[in-house]
């Protein structure tokens, strides 16, 4: 009886140790091995190399991009053969939505397209927080002039109007808020519109589709009717 008891106890111990080893291995794998799933948020911070870039009129350029997180937003700095530019971005899942401008005042807005409205989030250079902006679409159509109601990153409220005008593959955008007029350029990405705004014509918009080691980018500037491309790797 004692021998049989010891054999059973040893068998149970072996089974227990095998199960314990399995769960430890599973825990280590899921904890330490990095993974990227479609639609999940990816931290884009760090240095990226511009691997392939071309303007809408066919001109190629090279360079690098540095991304630094600042609160809820990201600050960007390009050093390229075409010039150096600052920008600010909002991370939306695996999409980095960017507005850039040579002047100090520039920013980015990301609108979700709904049935009769746009639900937006925005930020601007020098901010660490995100504001909101909701658009009531006139007759449910994007093109035209619409009422807006928003909150600045500091929580103060504002109202005004926004206008969308189709320009080839892009949208020309303008806001009237009080006595202030702002201009932007927008790219539609599925059921979203990303808009970069700034002063004069020295600004633009960029959308990067991020993966673990690469980013596929498209961008536009005022006066264009087609997107340019900028792909990254790290």
Topology:
Blueprint: H1 2-32, E1 46-54, E2 63-70, E3 73-80, E4 83-92, E5 95-101, E6 106-113, E7 117-124, E8 131-136, E9 144-151, E10 157-167, E11 170-177, E12 180-189, E13 192-198, E14 203-210, E15 214-220, E16 228-233
Antiparallel strand pairs: 1-2, 1-16, 2-3, 3-4, 4-5, 5-14, 6-7, 6-13, 7-8, 8-9, 9-10, 10-11, 11-12, 12-13, 14-15, 15-16
Helical residues, percent: 10-25%
The 3D shape can be described as globular
Mean of pLDDT: 88
Strand content: over 45%
The oligomeric state is single chain
Give unreliable regions as ranges.
23-40
Strands side by side in the biggest sheet: 1-2-3-4-5-14-15-16
The helix/strand class is mainly beta
How many domains, in number, for the residues? 2
Using the CA coordinates, give the radius of gyration: 24 Å
SS field, number of helical segments? 1
Largest sheet: 8 strands, antiparallel, barrel
Task: Give a written overview of the molecule.
The chain is mainly beta. It folds into two domains: 1-33; 46-233, no CATH class. The chain is 13% helix and 55% strand. It has one helix and 16 strands. The strands form two sheets. It has an eight-stranded antiparallel β-barrel. An eight-stranded antiparallel β-barrel has the order 6-7-8-9-10-11-12-13. Strand 4 and strand 5 form a beta hairpin. It is globular, with a radius of gyration of 24 Å. The termini are far apart. The relative contact order is 0.15.
């Amino acid at each position: 009886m004692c021998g049989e008891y010891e054999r059973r106890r040893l068998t149970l111990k072996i089974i227990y140790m095998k199960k314990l080893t399995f769960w430890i291995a599973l825990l280590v794998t899921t904890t330490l091995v990095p993974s990227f799933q479609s639609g999940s948020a990816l931290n884009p911070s760090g240095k990226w190399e511009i691997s392939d870039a071309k303007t809408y009129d066919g001109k190629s350029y090279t360079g690098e991009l540095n991304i630094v997180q600042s609160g809820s937003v990201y600050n960007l700095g390009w050093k390229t053969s075409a010039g150096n530019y600052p920008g600010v971005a909002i991370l939306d899942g695996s999409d980095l939505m960017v507005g850039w401008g040579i002047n100090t005042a520039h920013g980015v807005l990301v609108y979700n397209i709904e049935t009769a409205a746009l639900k937006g989030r925005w930020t601007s250079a020098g901010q660490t927080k995100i504001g909101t902006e909701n658009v009531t679409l006139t007759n449910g159509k994007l093109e035209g002039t619409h009422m807006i109601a928003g909150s600045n990153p500091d929580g103060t409220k504002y109202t005004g109007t926004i206008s969308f005008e189709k320009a080839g593959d892009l949208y020309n955008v303008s806001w009237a808020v009080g006595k202030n007029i702002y201009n932007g350029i927008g790219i539609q990405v599925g059921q979203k519109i990303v808009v970069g705004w700034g002063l004069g014509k020295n600004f633009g918009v960029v959308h990067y589709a991020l993966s673990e080691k690469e980013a596929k980018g498209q961008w536009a500037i005022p006066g264009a009717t087609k997107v340019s491309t900028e792909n990254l790797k790290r």
